[in-house]
Backbone:
């Protein structure tokens, strides 16, 4: 098996599978691979730790299964690099465009859609920790990879509705930007109602647009996606009681967007909140909450503010949403409104 994109997700999944005896080759940048020279350490939420020594490579190699775990902006480059390989490709990436792009650029190849629901944080050189719960979700055509996961005791579900699953994950990932702008761990951020109200506004805006576009959103948690914004807005005590039954989060968890900003890398904002902005434009309307989050992350990429309190972030959003509902038609005036 080949993991193309040895970042946090790629290293953790590759390491977890290697710990079960799977022959894994990690393909990544020399900087990351140099850290793995002494071994790759992966750890689990709630306990469990393994050290493995996977094969590494800086260029694409072939395998029966090739897991693509690069950032969305690098998907086209990954497709070009994998053109000479023959194995089944499994996309385990954020966003909703990557599988389509891989199929277009690699005609005739089997490309399987997958979704990673959990968060992985880098705890040090060569050390990666899964900090939230959840099972991998795969299109039914990915049964071979699912079997490998199950042999490694890595929970995995086969689905017949992966586009809806990917949109559902994107709606959840709208919080990535908010967590990155807060500068604090995910669990601490979610404990604060002001931050949750911002998440609720971003999700409600997205769900409204998706409903208008006729795009189905899968149910990934015990709470239906349409009710999640209401739950997020609950008082802190009620939210804590309910959230503890839905998903486990440990104190290490932070969003991948926070990690990108910390490492001074471009973020995936265009493929997450920006995807909602693009959908609104296709529908002839606006998504002002997600527009503003995109703007704030772009500013943060260039050294801007990354320590918003929940109250200050709500104020920043309120200034542009008070007179710009998501259902308002697009006009030249509304496009230029700050």
Residues:
């Amino acid at each position: 098996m080949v993991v193309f994109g040895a970042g946090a997700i790629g290293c953790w999944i590759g390491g977890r599978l290697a710990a079960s005896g799977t022959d894994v080759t990690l393909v990544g940048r020399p900087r990351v691979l140099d850290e793995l020279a002494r071994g790759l350490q992966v750890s689990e939420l709630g306990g469990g730790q393994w050290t493995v020594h996977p094969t590494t490579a800086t260029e694409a190699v072939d395998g029966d299964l090739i897991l693509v775990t690069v950032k969305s902006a690098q998907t086209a480059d990954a497709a070009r690099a994998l053109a000479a390989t023959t194995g089944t490709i499994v996309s385990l990436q954020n966003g909703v465009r990557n599988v389509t792009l891989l199929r277009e650029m690699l005609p005739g190849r089997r490309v399987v859609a997958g979704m990673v629901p959990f968060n992985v944080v880098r705890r040090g050189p060569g050390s990666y920790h899964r900090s939230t719960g959840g099972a991998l979700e795969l299109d039914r055509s990915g049964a071979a990879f699912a079997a490998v996961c199950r042999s490694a005791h890595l929970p995995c579900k086969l689905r017949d509705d992966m586009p809806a699953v990917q949109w559902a994950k994107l709606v959840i990932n709208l919080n990535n930007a908010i967590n990155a702008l807060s500068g604090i761990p995910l669990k601490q951020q979610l404990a604060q109602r002001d931050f949750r109200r911002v998440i609720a506004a971003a999700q409600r805006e997205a769900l409204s647009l998706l409903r208008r576009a006729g795009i189905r959103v899968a149910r990934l948690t015990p709470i239906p996606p349409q009710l999640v914004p209401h739950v997020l807005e609950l008082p802190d005590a009620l939210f804590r009681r309910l959230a503890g039954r839905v998903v486990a989060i440990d104190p290490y968890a932070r969003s991948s967007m926070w990690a990108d900003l910390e490492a001074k890398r471009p973020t995936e904002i265009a493929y997450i909140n920006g995807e909602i902005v693009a959908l609104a434009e296709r529908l002839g309307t606006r998504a002002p909450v997600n527009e503003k989050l995109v703007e704030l992350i772009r500013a943060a990429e260039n050294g801007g503010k990354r320590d918003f309190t929940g109250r200050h972030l709500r104020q920043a959003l309120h200034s542009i949403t008070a007179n710009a509902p998501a259902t308002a038609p697009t006009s030249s005036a509304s496009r230029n409104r700050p």
About this structure: The CA atoms of residues 253 and 277 lie 27 Å apart. The longest helix spans residues 193-213. The chain has two domains: 2-160, 165-335.
